[in-house]
Design brief:
The structure is a single chain. This protein is mainly α. The protein is built from six helices and no strands. Helix 2 (14-23) runs parallel beside helix 3, helix 4 packs antiparallel against helix 5 and helix 4 (69-82) packs parallel to helix 6. The model has no long low-confidence stretch (mean pLDDT 90).
Length: 135
Amino acid sequence: MISKEEFGRYIKDKDHLYKACLSNGYFLPLNRKNLFVTVKMLKEIYTQKCHCPKLSEINHRPCVNPPSSAVLRDECAAIIENNDDYASDEQAKQWKRLAKYMRKNLPEKTWVLGLLALVAPGHPVFKKDYQPPRK
């Protein structure tokens, strides 16, 4: 990882920043053009103002009948916002900043499922008899 001072010298645009975050092992949506993936959020992830789990932390779980992306996002963001088990106040702020970005711009469904499997591995969406809510 480069220092904050060297950041501007090496990172020229969103594409560079996205690749830098990926190469440092952050779990990001596959589609870098997703509205959730903003330059501001990527900078905050890289400078550790916003939490983003590492790929090594993600343990994908099967979800046969996932609900809509918005329902998943709201569930996952609520779990993050209501969690009181953070190691420090700074870590709580970083996680809540991630939830704020999730609520502002809808991430990809597969990314949210991966994050949900991390923050709530026993969530009902991962049960084999789960049925999404009807519209």
